[in-house]
Amino acid sequence: MNKPIIILGNGGHASVLTEILLSQNRKIIGFTAPDMEENQFQIPYLGNDETILQYDSNKVELVLGIGSISVSNHRRRLFELFTNKQYTFANVIHPSAIIAPSVKLGQGVQIMAGAIIQTNSFVADNTIVNTGAKIDHDCGIGAHVHLAPGTTLSGEVKIGEGTHVGTGATIIQGITIGNHCLIGAGAVVIHNIKHGVKAVGVPAKEV
Ligand SMILES: CC(=O)SCCNC(=O)CCNC(=O)[C@H](O)C(C)(C)COP(=O)(O)OP(=O)(O)OC[C@H]1O[C@@H](n2cnc3c(N)ncnc32)[C@H](O)[C@@H]1OP(=O)(O)O
């Protein structure tokens, strides 16, 4: 039995998630934000994130509606804050996503429209596989990663935790990208990337 959902945030990323959840007839209790805001789907405003603590962690699921455009600790911090208090983050998967049966997902994974995840890949907690992103076979994607729209990962690619792979970036087969890296939009990554590196261009070079 699906539990009712509280969404953290009310921006564009939260709207995409809300439309998926509504199309799946999930009950949404409301959203949290620092201040009272209108919601385009008439989802009720509950208060700031601390309001969540008034709800029994066994009776609700959370959805992290805060997006990211670069490397940021914000999503990780919120995820850990609430999982440490025994809350669970729901996986949100658009019905048009194609996910091979052997794929393993953590919790709080968000897989947007048209994404494809191939055989034997693993996507860890709180990672966003955004619109049209493709993860080919035997890839390992760490926690708190954002694969921005249209990214392409060839086979056996490893992405470390907290890394942002920019819109339309392409990673060739067998590459390992470290933790907290920033891969620029449109980059083509043909060499391994160490932790904390920002790389842009074709082929991608450290900057
Ligand atoms: C649904 C959604 O919207 S999800 C959001 C998805 N968005 C993304 O993935 C965004 C990814 N971000 C980028 O690609 C950014 O351009 C970044 C993070 C790589 C760079 O941003 P900044 O650090 O602000 O760099 P800035 O814009 O000042 O540019 C610095 C230099 O890098 C170059 N540069 C910036 N981005 C890129 C890129 N993607 N590829 C090649 N060169 C780039 C600029 O041309 C500039 O060069 P110059 O100094 O010779 O003029």
Protein topology:
Layout: E1 5-8, H1 12-23, E2 28-32, E3 45-47, E4 61-64, H2 74-83, E5 92-93, E6 98-99, E7 104-105, E8 110-111, E9 116-117, E10 122-123, E11 128-129, E12 134-135, E13 140-141, E14 146-147, E15 152-153, E16 158-159, E17 164-165, E18 170-171, E19 176-177, E20 182-183, E21 188-189, E22 198-200, E23 205-206
Parallel strand pairs: 1-2, 1-4, 2-3, 5-8, 6-9, 7-10, 8-11, 9-12, 10-13, 11-14, 12-15, 13-16, 14-17, 15-18, 16-19, 17-20, 18-21, 20-22
Antiparallel strand pairs: 22-23
The structure holds acetyl coenzyme *A (ACO).
Textual characterization of the structure:
The protein is built from two helices and 23 strands. It is an alpha/beta fold and 207 residues long. It folds into two domains: 5-83, Rossmann fold (3-Layer(aba) Sandwich), CATH 3.40.50; 91-200, Hexapeptide repeat proteins (UDP N-Acetylglucosamine Acyltransferase, domain 1, 3 Solenoid), CATH 2.160.10. Residues 67, 69-70, 130, 148-149, 166-167, 182, 184-186, 200-201 line the site of acetyl coenzyme *A (ACO). The active site is at 137 (proton acceptor). Acetyl-CoA binds at residue 146. Keywords: Acyltransferase, Transferase.
